[in-house]
Amino acid sequence: MFPCPFILPAAFLLDILAGEPPNRFHPVCLIGRCARHMETLARQRWGGTFHAGMAAALATCIAAWFGCAALFLPFSLLPYPWAPWIPSVLVIYICMAPRSLAEHARKVENALRSGNAGEARHSVSMIVGRDTERMDGHGIARAAIESVAENLTDGVFFHPVLGISRLPGRRLLRGGFRRAGASCFQHSGCHVGEKK
Q1: Per residue in 175-188, pLDDT tens?
Q2: Of 28, 46, 111, 137, which one's alpha carbon is 20 to 30 angstroms from that of 77?
Q3: CB 127 within 8 A of CB 175
Q4: How confident is the model over 40-74, as pLDDT tens digits?
Q5: How far apart (Å, rounded) are the C-alpha atoms in residues 8 and 132?
Q6: CB of 124 within 8 A of CB of 145?
Q7: What's the rounded Cα separation, in Å, for the pair 181 and 196?
């Protein structure tokens, strides 16, 4: 069954009008706090090892998917065929965040144009998972372009082809943990799509 063709445009429109929620209430940041807790527990058991990173990352992704299931369940019980579209729009809105992505990319562009490499590195570090400290101007620009392309491709491609359930995991793998302040992916080697 193909998703409603209006879900993706509705998510885009919601993002344009509302932008992203404040960090305090942002689902990715809430998941990040969960990730830090999982990482602490995993480090206590396995130390700073690959297994600890994998365990923390997997447990956090499972928690995120359970959160999505909890969001969808009440709507699925409603006697309206369009009811499940509402949480679908909300999940895509949170996972894609094109307005915020554009704002961060614009900060990188402005810093590069003004010749402020330090500010550009800091700005690009907010949207990529790799180490930005040694990047030159070309590397910073390339990283920003790749991140924008990857995030938009994930949202546009993975939604209709693989479904809503893959989006939270993709958002986390594409750098959600960096924004949330968790480092468990650095120990598991799961920076998918990021060049070292």
Answers
A1: 444 444 444 444 44
A2: 28
A3: yes
A4: 888 888 887 888 888 888 888 888 888 878 888 88
A5: 32
A6: no
A7: 20
Is residue 18 predicted with pLDDT exceeding 90? no
Mean pLDDT of 123-149: 87
Contacts of residue 37, Cβ cutoff 8 Å, sequence gap at least 6: none
Report the alpha-carbon distance of residue 1 to residue 147 in Å, rounded: 30
Model pLDDT, residue 107: 93
Distances (CA, A) of 176 to 36, 60, 95, 124, 161: 12, 11, 9, 14, 22
**Quick one: pLDDT at residue 108?**
94
CA 53, CA 191: separation in Å to the nearest integer?
12
- Both tokens of 25, joined, read 């209430």
Buried-exposed string 39-67: b where 16+ CB fall within 10 A, e elsewhere = beebbeebeeeeebbbbbbebbbebbeeb
| 25 Rama class: left (phi>0) / alpha (psi -120 to 50) / beta | alpha
